[in-house]
Structures are given as C-alpha cells and as structure tokens.
Fold these 4 entries.
Entry 1:
Amino acid sequence: MNKFLIALLVSIATFGDGRIITTTNNAASIVKLLVGDKASVESLTLGPQDPHYLSSKPSFTVKLSRADLLISIGMELEEGWLPLVTKGARNPKILHGAKGSLVLGEYLKNPLEVPVNLSRAQGDVHAAGNPHFLLSPQRVLELLPVISTKLVETFPDLKEVVRVNRAKLETELQNIVREMKSVKFHKNIIMYHKTLSYFLNDMGIEVAGYLEPKPGIPPSAAHMLNIMKTIDEKNVKLVLVENYFSDSIARKLQEKKDVRIYHIPVAAEGVEKVTTIVDLYRYLLNIVRVEEGK
C-alpha cells in the first residue's frame, strides 16, 4: 500500500465526514474542544495573524467550497475578505442565513464599545461594537449553547460527543472566571489596540491609554508624549502589545519609563505554548497578575 493511500485512510479514520471552517483560531479552538477528533476543524486565520486584514486567497475559496459549516465572528471583523471568499466558493450551504452558517456576533448580548456616531475621523471602528468577544471566557460560556446547538443540527451523529465535551469545557471556563475574580492584578495598563477589551472588562482592569490614538491609526510623537504623561499620572507598570502588531514603539517607551512590555498572543496557537483558547486565557491571566510581594 503506497504512502499516499495510507495517509488518506488515516485521515478518514481520524476525522468524521464533517468539515468545519472558522474565520479565527479562537473560534476553531472552541469547536475543536467540542467535537474532538470527530470532525475536521480548520481556521482561515493563523494564530498570529490579524483577522481584520486577511487577503482573499484562492485556497480559502477551495476550503469553503467543501465546507459543511462556516463559523464566523461577524460585527464587520471579516468584511474586507470573507464576502469575496464565500461568493467564490459557490457553496449555498454556508451562505449567510443558510443551515451551514453561524455568525457568532449575531448572538452576542451587550457588546462593548458600540459607537454612538460613526465617522472616519474615529479610525477603524466597528458599527456593531468590539468584535473580540471570544477573548472573554464569560462571553464564551454564554455562547456555548448557540455553538453546540449549531454543531448538533449540522452533524446529528455528534450529539453525545458535543454534550460530554461541552460539560468539560464549561467547567474549565467557570474555573477560569472564578480565578479572574480572585487574583490580584494590575489596575491600570496600556494597550496597543482594543483587542482585550472583553477580557479586561471581565477583570475590572482599566485601560489607561492606547498606543494607537484611534483604531488603525499609528501613534504620533505628540500622542506618545501624552501616553508617557498618563503612565506617570496613573502609575502604569504594564504595556501590552498584540503580537500581530510591532512592539517597536512600546520598546522605545520602555527606554524612558519604568514599565514592562509584553508582546502577547490574542489567539489560540498565537505562540508555541498556547495551543487552545483555554491556554490563552491562562496565559493572559498570568500576564496581568501582580507578582507576590509587589
């Protein structure tokens, strides 16, 4: 038996017939934790990539043409590339509103940072609010029934697998939520972008300032002077930069201020040791935690 046929048989034995495509690694991680090895789950966005600015690759079109279920974030996160890919895939099962489509943002309650007025002067803002809600374990707990129901509707044979794995995941997330409420953490931090808004909101951490003056706008010299002033006024000791942005500006800031800089993942598989979204929550929790004796 040749190597290709062996690999094909192993693939069939490992995964069920279902093909699930997600737009982000965090969504993929949640789904993998629910279905295990009983379906093929793949993210179009790699861990360290910014899902706002993906290109419409031909490979994406091929993958979506074969998909049974497409799980996206919505809230304009993928608007620059996903409509082109789904149109090119010519797969009616995954079109918006079809059985094989799930847009998680449509089920999100009380989104953060919904703009009152929209204008380009505000930078790259999302009309429906901040789309990075999967970075909150509490929000994921609220969305698990929606995700689980869609998985079982699409793949009825996975009902028991999803039920068992959902219970395990709920327990893990509940433990993390409890830990977030009990640890001592930094009260004020500086971020680059508003990616961690939901995570930090869960913990009651105030973002004292952002390195980008407005979403999508690079910092100016005048803005950085204001950030340095804020660091002094609010005694900020922690600066976090998402690892799909450069941390060079933050490093220059560190030359003048006594702050710690972390170039952080904000997605599962964003760095080597963060393989699941549960790993990601624990990684971020350890970053914002205040060390004993400080």
Entry 2:
Amino acid sequence: MISIVIPTYNRGDLIKRSVESILKQSYQDIEIIVVDDNSSDDTADQIKEINSSKVKYYRLDKNRGACFARNYGVKKSIGEYIAFQDSDDIWDSSKLEKQLEYLISNNFDIVSCKIKIIGEEKETVFPENSHIDIDEIYTKNKLSTQTLVGKKQCFLDTPFDERLPRFQDWDLAINLVKKYNVGILDEVLVDVYMQDNSISKNPGKAEKALQIFLEKYGTNKRARAQYLRLIGVYRLQQHKDTKKYFLKSFTLNPLDIKLLVDIVLSVFDLEKLHYNIYLKKGRFK
C-alpha cells in the first residue's frame, strides 16, 4: 500500500480537486491522509463531500506548519510506501503506478519525477534533467515534495525539519540523497499551480530558511557561498542591505562572474538597477 499525505491550510477551494486526482490513480492500493493545519475555511466540509473510505482526515488543534503536518501524516500512515501531495496540485493518473514500478525495478529507496510549474504568465518544467549528484544537491535542489514516492522508513528516519518556513523540500532532498538510493523518473507527472499567496513567493521566509541552511550545511564551502548569495538576492527583493552577503559569498567563490556583478551593483548602491535585473529574469516571481 502507498499512503499519500496531504497537508492543507485554508485550501477549501482546491483540496477536493487534489484528492479526487489521487482517487483516479491507476494504482489503487492506497490511503489518502489529509492533515488539516487548523484551517479557518470550509476545508473539513469539502473533505466530507468526498465519498471514499480511502480518505482519512485529521485536523490539528493549532496551526503548526506544513512540515509538522507531513511528519504527522507519515506517523499516522499504514502503507509500506509514502507519497506526498500538496492541496493545490494535480497528479497524472499513472503517477503512482509508474513511480512504484520504477522504484522496484531499479532498487531505489525513493523516486521523484518531473513537474510542470504553471504560473500566472508561463509554464516551466522542473528539474531540467534527471541526474542526481550528491555534491550538487547542496547548492541546487532537484526534488519537489509532491513528486516523492518512497519507503516509509526513510521518512520516519529522515523527517521534515519543522523549523524551516521555506525550502523544506530542498532540505529533505539533501538528507535523503546523503542516506538513500534516490532516482528521478524522467517524466512530467505533476502539475503545480503557483498561488498568489504561496510561501514559495515569500522572500522573508526564504531568508530565514537559508540562515538555517547556513547552520546545517555551512561547513560545505561551495554550499555556504550559494546560501549567502541567495540571502543577498532575497534581501534585495525586500529592499534590505545586501553588501555583506554578496561580499562574503564572493570571498568563498571568487570565480563566479554573477557574484562580481552583484557586488559591484550593491557596493555602488545601484539597488534599483540591481532589483530590475533580477525582476526581468523572473527571479522574484
């Protein structure tokens, strides 16, 4: 059995569609665990309208965040395998079947797949390629939570870090790739709909999460340089001072031309130009 864990918070308008996309999976030995993070909307009523014994609903007594909700769902599950879904995303009907077959036939512990990110203005596919490198994963994530299918014990032994307000999937990916045999199925099996109020658009939460990354993985020189640079970028988005972070990053990675441009623009207080460059690149969307 595969247990699918869905954390949700005030997604009453979307949660039903998400659950129904799972119920239409070609692989049917499943349970769906919806963990409501103390929503104030009609999420509970929407779940009650779904007529399926496969759906189990748990409401938390207070808002604890998506990481806590996912860990809670894993502990409540009875399946041998775990998958994660977000309340505003849609799965291809063959997702679980294809990924489980790929996992078993290649002796993986965990498998991911590609996603189509549907934004307000464009669509992109993530990741660009399916190669996983243990060194690269510290500086560039390739796994998204709603793509994962893996052995339950992996997620019990390596839970989500509940301190993180953002980049939870990246942090989990680092730890999973370090400990287990992880593969990516080179096929788009998830549609991700980017919401206006998504935490993945919140630069303040990104900055806070990257500070935690520095604590956890900062001994890796290349990774530390990347986190410092990203903190600078997200501080720029918030119109905060960036010089210190770009300079520290450059001292660790002096061959990065992009960093040199960041330093010049920040040192000479060309914030408006600097901001607009990243805005045109779509970095702040």
Entry 3:
Amino acid sequence: MMAAYARYGKVAEASEIYNWMPHKKALGWSLLLIAYARNGLVDEASEMLQSVPASDSIAANAVLAAFARAGNVAAAKELFDYMPARTSGSWNSLAQAYAQAGHLAECVKAANLMPETTRGTWVAMIRAYGDHGMVAEARTAFDNLPRVTVDACNTLIVAYARNGHLVEAKELFDAMLVRSTVTWASIMEGCTMNNLAGQALEIFHWENCSGQLMPDQVVLSAVLSAHSWLGCLDDAAGIIRDMASDYGIRPRVEHYCAILAMLTSRSELGDAEDLAASMPFVAPASAWKLLLDVCKI
C-alpha cells in the first residue's frame, strides 16, 4: 500500500502509513524518501536522509536529483561527497545542479571526472555553455551525444535563441522530426526575445492547426508573451479568458506574469500595476519586484 501511494505522489498518505509502522524497515524509509524527493519536498527528504543507510544508493540518488532540480548546489555537492558508491546517475545529477546554477567550470569538471558521460550530462553541458554565451561549445556538446533526443534539441534551441542565433535555432526546429510542447514554446520564446513576436505567433498558429500537439501551460505563456510584446493586450486578455474553454487549461499566475513582464519591459507601469492588482490570485513577490525595478529606472 505504501509503495502504491509513493509511486503515485500521495506523499501524505505514504507518510501516514510509514508513521504507523511499528518497525521502520529500510524499504519503508527508502520508499518515503524517494516520494519526498520526486515530489519536490527537498527539506523533508534532506531531514529523512539522515536516517537512511549511506549504502542505499537509490534513495540517495533520488534526493540528489531533487536537490539538482531545486537548484540547491551546496546540498547536492554535500550529499554527493557523502555517498560511498556513486553511479552515473549521481554524477549526472551533480552536473545538472551545476548547470542549473550557472556554474560552468564545475559542470564541465564533473563531466570530465565521471566514469561514463551520459545523455543527461551532455544536455547539462549544452545548457551551461548556452547560459554563458558559448554557443559553439554548446553545439560541440550536442554533436557529442551518442543519440540525439528531443530534450537535447530543446536545450540547444534555447541556447541559440538566448544568444541571438535565431536562424540556427529555427533550422534545428525545422529539422526535428519529433517535437514536444517544450520545443514549441522554446522557439516561440526565442522569436519574441529577438523582436520577432509576430513570427512566434505564426509558429503557434501553424503548429496548432496541424493538430500534432495540444498547447499546454508553457506554450500558452509563450503566446501571451508574444501578444504582450506586440502590444496586443486585448488579444492576450482574450486568450486568458478563453483558455479553459479552448484548451481545457485554467489560467495560472504565470500566465498573468507573462503579460506583466512584457508590460514592465516596455515601461507601461500603469497597465502593469493594474494587472498585478486585478489578478485573481495573490500576486507573487516576483511580480511586485518587476514593478519596483521599473520605478527605479
């Protein structure tokens, strides 16, 4: 029963069963620890890890991966150093933590030290190089992949687009035989950040009409950003209004923030303040920070 709850993300129920257990067996704490880690409960996982034998590499790797996803580099490195037996997954998670935090040198060092470089490690390096504007190196890491994957292509598209290489990003996008919604959102965001928001909307309409992919939260955020960049706030508001009926997606705070970010980037402070105040959610701190940053200019 506990294993089923843990597998399907029912962390509270799994924890309750664990607390009822008269004898806390290794399997029980390992299952609960993995459930905490995979559901982003990093603090709970870290605390419970103190009770797990160091030899439980599966549980330790799950927590290490959770630290990496959370961007907690210090905790990831501390756990990695504590592990007596490191697998390729351990090294991969450490490299991803460094890449996500923008620590290029450490990411490359981890990749060079690991016994076997995995696909995830190469993708982490593509991201790290891209974040530092080293597009040629990102492409070299991509070319070193034993097998090209959608995830790797998406990461390189982002690296190209963020560094102004939109032609290369579009060429890679067009060459992909299989795309995900992340691919779709990445190329659209790349167009928008390179002052081609109209092209971003053309890509959205083409893909949408093809019926190959159903827009998700990330794609619709990219659409809203493009509309906002073009100053088409009525169209953006229409998308938020009809999101549930057209796509079966309830508007979330990030959709409003996509519009807010563009308004603040254009110094349209009045409209941005009205939007932040009228959100059907409590506006996050990041939203008010955008407004404050504009006021300082």
Entry 4:
Amino acid sequence: MTLVLLLLTGTILFFSLLKIMAPLTKLREAAVSVSEGNYDIQVPAEGDTELAQVGKSFNQMSSKVKEQIECLSTVNHTQRQLMGSLAHELKTPMTSILGYADTLLTVRLQRQQQERALSYISSECRRLSRLSVKMLELTGLYETGESRFAPTENSVKAFLEDSRQLNLCRLKEKNICLELQCEPADLKKNFDKDLMLSLVNNFIDNAVKASADNSKLILAATAGKLMVQDFGKGIPAEDLDKVTEAFYMVDKSRSRANGSVGLGLALCKKIADIHGFQMKIESEIGKGTCVFIEW
C-alpha cells in the first residue's frame, strides 16, 4: 500500500512539474528561434502569473524587433550597416536569456532564485523592446528629415522645468538633485519641443548613469548654450569623438547593466544637426562630463 502511494505521489509530482516547466520550455525554444532570425515566434502569455508577464514582455520584444527589421530592410547603405550593428547588439542579451531559461529548466532553484532569473529575462526583453523603439526613432529621423521638423518659439525656463518633471522618477532612483539654471529668466528659443525633450532626456539619462547616489546634476541654458553637467566618472579623451556613434558605449558592461543600448547620443547629434545646432562634449576623468549644444 505504501509503495502504491509513493508511486502515485511521484507520478502526480512528475506531471505537475511537466506542466510548470512547459512555459519555460516554450520560452527557451522561442528564444532560440529569435536568435536564428525568426521574429514571428510568440509564446503563451495568458494569465497574470510571473511567467505570463515574462511571456508578454518576450512577445512585445519579438514584435518590435520584427517591425524594426522590416523598416530597416528598405533603407540606404548606411542604415543597413546600422541593422548589422543591431543584430550584433541583440546577440549578448539573447544569449543571457537562453542561459537563464536553461538554468530554470535544468537546475532546482529556490523560489527567490527563480524570481531573480525570471526578473532578469523580463528586464532583458524590455531592454530589447526599448532598443527597437530607439532604432525606429533614429532611422525615422534619417528617412523623413525636415518633414517631421516643426520648430516653434518656446519659453526656455518652462522647457527646462518640463524636462525635470519628465525625469523625476529616474532622478529619485539615485536620489539625485537636478539644479535648473536659465539666464535670462525670460529666454525664448525656436526649436521642435518634442525632439529637444528627447535630446535633453538622453543627456540627463546618461548623466544619471555616470553619477553616484545622492549627487547633483545641472541643467542650464543661456542665450548661446543648453547643457547638462554631471560630476561623475568622466569619459576618457580617446572616446570623446566616438560616443556619438550609434551603439558605441564607453563602458559596455556598466552601460548594459543600466539598460543602455548605445543609441542615445547618436540620436541627440541628429536632433541637434537638423536644428542647425552644434553638439559638443567636454569631460575629465574623475570630475565629470558636460554635454551641451550651441544654439
């Protein structure tokens, strides 16, 4: 009787584990398929479980990457080179997703370790989704040029405050103070507000990544300059001319850990160029970086 109960219990556990592991098996198979270039693959994402949320993030990532790849298939030679860089950029996170999926399938982990692995898979899928969005934005500017360009007169002081509000959550993550300076206070400038917000948001995001907790950033504007100053790690002199290239990252490990995809400053340079502004970077190791445009 005891043997029968043990066999029955073992059978129930075996099939229960198969049912639990099935979504992970499908996720692993889908990750392999995406890494081989099949962006039509989708995984089950029904329900509100953690695995369902990971599935939704994965499907969103796959769809956005497919959309971006289709967009890039018709562009000129320069953008085809950019697509090659994207494919290279996707390789490392996809390898990580595969590794964590394999671990979940083959290793008996504690609940906390499982959640950490699932969280990593989800965050990497979201990062790839952000990459696709940024790529589409960058190539969209290259393709349409001035047709999307709509400059209007703006109060610079109000613009700086809007920039701070958009970045409050990001700043609170590291308890960083963003100091605003506008001289003169009634300064007005002609620019496309949406594009310039994107530019300043990228400046601030990079400054936050380079800064220590409980530090300070400066967002300042004068009649001739708009700048973001941080007091963080600084950029090596040999990298200053390269940081505006798409996908170039000074510290790749730190950038990926912070969710960076290496497209921000390339986008900023394009935005500055179509306004007729000059983007410049000054930096010193250990003292910080000032990224600014002359307008």
